[in-house]
């Protein structure tokens, strides 16, 4: 049954393949544990109803089968106050139990206030990628979110365009990401690892390829990651890199992308300051390796049809140069 609910993505990095399945029955954070309990209660009650109803049905079919010599209709009974009361009152009680338990869980998760040491992250949904801001740390990244194990992380969710939904099943429930509104979500992961998620609200052509990767790191690894994201870019004097930088500046790449310490300050597309520290491209669709990066720069539409990055019609030589430049953004 778990497989039915599993999220699978087809074109993810080889190294992650074995782990790119997210199981809602394997919660690893307080909110997802609470949701898991309600889910089991609802499934248990529904299974009970199924067994009772199908049992009675099977009993009636076997017991009251037409027998040889039956020529008369069975006695016709119209209405029974007791039975009708029973099948009205019992379902109402069941629905009330489910409403109360669900409301209590929703309240427990949503009424919580952030812990003092909580990490705060702002996530902005875009067609079709996620912008990620660590505001206190002054870090901007995209699609891949690093958080420390055992610490509460609070997400503020905003949208730049249409309604999206942020869902990392093993760590928290779904939360809609709505234009002109701020929603909140928290998680306190109990195990390190990579937790895949996805946009869970249809938001256009590439909705299915708006993947999320949450990397839950040890505290040391998380600090190291923070430090690496704050580090200034290392300048390169390689002529190929210089040529690539020039192509990047002269085409409209820099109107959409930001690279710290350069004149590229666009904010429409993902921040590329530390592009090479990310494992995937195109919001988790493909592994970030030189070949895929080349194909992506050459024509993003071939990989992610409808993506807002157009085919810049660069020559192969220019693509080589841009890729050399991007490859220095560690
Ligand atoms: Cu964003 Cu679906």
3D architecture notes:
Helix 5 crosses helix 9. Strands 5-4-3-7-10 form a five-stranded mixed beta sheet. The two termini are 42 Å apart. The model is unreliable at 1-15 (pLDDT under 50). A hairpin with a 2-residue loop joins strand 3 and strand 4 (129-134). It has nine helices and 14 strands. The protein has helices spanning 2-5, 30-63, 81-110, 219-230, 239-250, 253-256, 290-298, 300-303, 316-326, and strands spanning 7-8, 21-22, 119-126, 129-134, 139-142, 144-148, 153-159, 164-167, 175-177, 183-187, 193-199, 211-217, 280-281, 286-287. Bound molecules: dinuclear copper ion (CUA).
Question: What's a concise summary of this model?
Answer:
Helices cover about 35% and strands about 20% of the residues. The chain is of the alpha+beta class and about 325 residues long.
């Amino acid at each position: 049954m778990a497989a039915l609910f599993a999220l699978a993505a087809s074109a993810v990095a080889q190294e992650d393949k074995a782990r790119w399945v997210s199981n809602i029955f394997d919660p690893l954070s307080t909110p997802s544990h609470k949701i898991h309990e309600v889910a089991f209660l609802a499934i248990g009650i529904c299974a009970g109803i199924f067994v009772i109803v199908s049992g009675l049905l099977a009993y009636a079919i076997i017991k009251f089968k037409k027998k040889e010599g039956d020529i008369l209709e069975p006695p016709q009974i119209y209405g029974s106050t007791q039975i009708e009361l029973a099948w009205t009152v019992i379902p109402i009680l069941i629905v009330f139990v489910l409403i109360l338990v669900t409301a209590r869980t929703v309240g427990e998760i949503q009424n919580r206030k952030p812990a003092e040491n909580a990490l705060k992250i702002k996530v902005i949904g875009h067609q079709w990628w996620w912008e990620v801001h660590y505001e206190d740390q002054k870090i901007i990244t995209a699609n891949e979110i690093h958080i420390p194990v055992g610490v509460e992380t609070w997400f503020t969710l905003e949208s730049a365009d249409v309604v999206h939904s942020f869902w990392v099943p093993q760590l928290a429930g779904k939360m809609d990401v709505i234009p002109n509104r701020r929603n909140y979500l928290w998680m306190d992961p109990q195990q390190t690892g990579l937790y895949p998620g996805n946009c869970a609200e249809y938001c256009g052509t590439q909705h299915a390829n708006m993947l999320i990767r949450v990397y839950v790191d040890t505290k040391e690894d998380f600090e190291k990651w923070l430090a690496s994201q704050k580090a200034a870019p290392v300048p390169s004097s390689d002529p190929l890199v210089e040529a690539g930088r020039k192509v990047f500046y002269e085409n409209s790449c820099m109107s959409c992308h930001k690279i710290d310490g350069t004149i590229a300050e666009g904010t429409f597309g993902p921040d590329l300051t530390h592009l090479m520290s990310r494992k995937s491209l195109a919001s988790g669709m493909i592994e970030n390796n030189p070949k895929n990066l080349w194909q992506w720069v050459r024509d993003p539409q071939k990989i992610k049809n409808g993506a807002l990055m157009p085919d810049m019609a660069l020559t192969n030589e220019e693509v080589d140069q841009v890729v050399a430049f991007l490859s220095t953004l560690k």
